[in-house]
Write a structure and sequence with these properties.
This protein is α+β, with helices and mostly antiparallel strands. The strands form 8 sheets. A 4-stranded antiparallel sheet has the order 1-28-27-26, with no helix packed on it. The protein has a 4-stranded antiparallel sheet with strand order 2-3-4-5, with no helix packed on it. Strands 6-7-8-9 form a 4-stranded antiparallel sheet, with no helix packed on it. It starts with a helix and ends with a helix.
Length: 639
């Protein structure tokens, strides 16, 4: 009886993730227990081992020690026993605080649901105490719609907190976290891939590197390798690229010859890429799919030379079928969705000249299926329709003839909208698009067993395109059309990842931070290390330098004066000197000019000699016009 009173089992806090019975950690608080009774407890119940007894087993052992018959007790949702001092009603002080927080959380959840249906965007409030309000400022505003009968406590999705990472100027179409959960890649339609390191990132959410895999081509997909030491980037260009973990370019895949009709005779793709995936069974193998109606398998060690295998997709009539999306299966199978609406698969052992199984009419013909993905156990396949076929279909990989279920009314306006299974294959999800400002973008979840919609996470007026749920850190990253990557996590169920950076505030500048700058000059390096003159001022200086500009001499303006040094003076200077009664020639001589004379006088001094000796002007005597002078007297009489 003393044991039961010392350790009451009050209402427990709903968990963010429902734990399995064998993974439950039992916490023991022996405060207030007799030392002998504490020693008599079984070893499996003391400490926090990976496995422990259930609540009814613990009650039975306590009742046996007290000599009473145990009654079945409802198991707590989390399987965790809380210790503490009990109140009059049998609840510990810790449990009373938890109940109060649960009631406040339910009230906030109801308000958020009402705001969602009203078209508003309610803020998520963290479940922590008020003392941690400063650290919870990273929780951004978001919509959370819950279906009838659903509560936030019994959800498996880490969504109690949200941290927005901004950086891209256009839609985020690809999100991928490496296997260790330490770094993340985001690809966007702004042609850039941004790299984030959670260990070194602060609450600002700044990327440590940004790169453009191919200038002028938007990113299609960016994926980490199985070991996380490199990543593969595919753009709208026909050549994929391989980068190191730090973002340095390693390999550029081979390019095919567009003038060769037979696609298996080219070294690479000749059209825009649509997919790039790593093999789940070999860390050096990957596939790429393009609009040249081929899927190519590569060995990254010799990807610069040529591909390993070429898979050609065909329609039912044997014509070329454009590939829309491709993916690997669990055992290395290759799946492809074509624009004729078919789903084709090939066995990992080959041969690849014809598909192992084909489903014709899986989606609406002449539409681009945006994504195909497989479950972790390889039993199920999901495909996502694009504009004109706004559906999500789930297939049984063992009976690949008709879909198990089809979900419609899921608008999609992006050719890269993802669909994927959640960790453990308990659910599968996809994003929806906002059409011309109508509706709300959301990430929709469906149960794998019951094949029904179980949850929806709204993101306002922004479309949901790329996302990644990392199982190791239990955090969900969602890319939207406004260029923002939303990080969803739970402070209790998640670990590392965003939890490492949301509390790290950037260092503020201090007035005492003074940096003195001084010039360091080396011998014979004045032009390199000296102050650089601006281009504008340098151009103005060169404009007045005749040597630098190579400016020719300007022609003489007005009445000129001829001397042995060329034309000097001007008409203005000549007439001003006449007006002042000065001798212009004397003036020029004073300035260093000699033999200055009027050009007209210099010519007329040869007039008399030319009239006597007509050796050079005799030919013009007969052709000269007759001079007719005006008779002013006759004109005056006529008036």
């Amino acid at each position: 009886k003393a044991c039961l009173e010392a350790m009451p089992f009050g209402p427990q806090r709903p968990p963010a993730a429902k734990a399995k019975e064998e993974d439950v950690s039992i916490v023991q608080d022996t405060a207030g227990l007799d030392s002998e009774l504490a020693k008599a407890l079984p070893m499996s119940f003391s400490g926090t081992g990976k496995k422990g007894p259930s609540l009814n087993d613990a009650v039975a052992e306590f009742a046996a020690l007290a000599g009473k018959k145990a009654e079945p007790v409802a198991e707590p949702t989390r399987g965790r026993i809380f210790g503490g001092n009990a109140d009059d009603e049998g609840n510990s002080a810790a449990d009373v605080g938890v109940v109060e927080k649960d009631e406040a959380r339910d009230a906030r959840q109801g308000q958020r649901t009402a705001n969602f249906h009203a078209g508003k965007r309610g803020a998520i409030v963290d479940d922590s105490s008020d003392d941690d309000s400063d650290e919870d400022s990273d929780s951004d505003q978001s919509d959370r719609e819950l279906l009838p009968g659903q509560t936030q406590g019994d959800s498996l999705i880490p969504m109690s907190n949200e941290f927005n990472i901004k950086g891209h100027s256009k839609a985020v179409v690809s999100v991928c976290v490496d296997s260790s959960g330490a770094r993340m890649l985001t690809g966007s339609l702004d042609y850039n891939v941004r790299m984030y390191d959670f260990n070194g990132m602060t609450s600002i959410g700044r990327a440590f590197r940004e790169l453009a895999p191919q200038d002028g081509y938007h990113v299609i997909d960016a994926q980490w390798s199985l070991t996380g030491d490199r990543f593969l980037a595919a753009t709208g260009y026909q050549r994929a690229k391989l980068f190191t973990r730090d973002g340095s370019e390693m390999i550029t895949f081979a390019k095919g010859d567009m003038y060769v009709m037979s696609m298996e005779r080219t070294k690479g793709h000749v059209a825009s890429l649509v997919a790039a995936k790593w093999s789940p069974v070999d860390k050096n193998t990957c596939l790429t799919a393009a609009q040249d109606c081929t899927v190519r398998l590569w060995d990254v060690n010799r990807a610069e030379e040529t591909q390993v295998t070429v898979i050609k997709t065909r329609t039912e009539r044997g014509q070329k079928a454009n590939v829309c999306a491709a993916a690997y299966g669990r055992r290395g199978e290759v799946y492809a969705v074509c624009n004729d609406g078919s789903i084709q698969s090939w066995d990992p052992k080959g041969p690849y000249h014809s598909p192992t199984s084909v489903v014709r009419g899986a989606h609406t013909p002449n539409t681009d299926t945006s994504c195909i993905n497989t479950s972790m156990d390889g039993r199920y396949i999901i495909t996502r329709g694009n504009d004109g076929d706004d559906t999500l279909k789930i297939w049984d990989a063992r009976n690949f003839k008709k879909p198990l279920s089809e979900f419609d009314a899921l608008p999609n306006r992006y050719q890269t909208t993802k669909c994927a299974f959640t960790p453990g294959d308990k659910m599968f999800c996809t994003g929806t698009s906002v059409i011309k400002g109508e509706g709300l973008g959301a990430l929709v979840f469906f149960d794998t067993v019951s094949l029904r919609k179980v949850r929806q996470i709204g993101f306002g007026k922004e479309s949901v395109i790329g996302f990644d749920w990392h199982q190791g850190i239990n955090q969900l990253f969602v890319g939207t059309s406004d260029g923002v990557t939303h990080g969803l996590y739970d402070r209790d169920a998640s670990k590392k990842g965003l939890l490492l950076c949301v509390g790290q505030r950037p260092r503020q500048k201090d007035p005492g931070d003074i940096m003195e700058y001084f010039n360091i000059k080396a011998p014979h390096a004045e032009n390199l290390l000296g102050p650089q003159r601006s281009r504008k001022r340098q151009a103005e200086k060169d404009r007045h330098d005749p040597v630098a500009t190579k400016k020719p001499h300007l022609p003489q303006q007005g009445v000129s004066r001829i001397s042995m040094h060329g034309a000097v003076g001007s008409a203005t200077q000549y007439w001003l000197s006449k007006a002042r009664g000065e001798d212009f020639s004397q003036l020029m001589e004073e300035r260093g000019r000699e033999h200055v004379e009027d050009s007209r006088e210099a010519l007329l001094k040869f007039a008399e000699e030319a009239a006597k000796d007509k050796t050079y002007s005799r030919a013009y005597d007969k052709t000269q016009p007759v001079k007719i002078f005006r008779n002013e007297e006759e004109e005056d009489d006529s008036k």
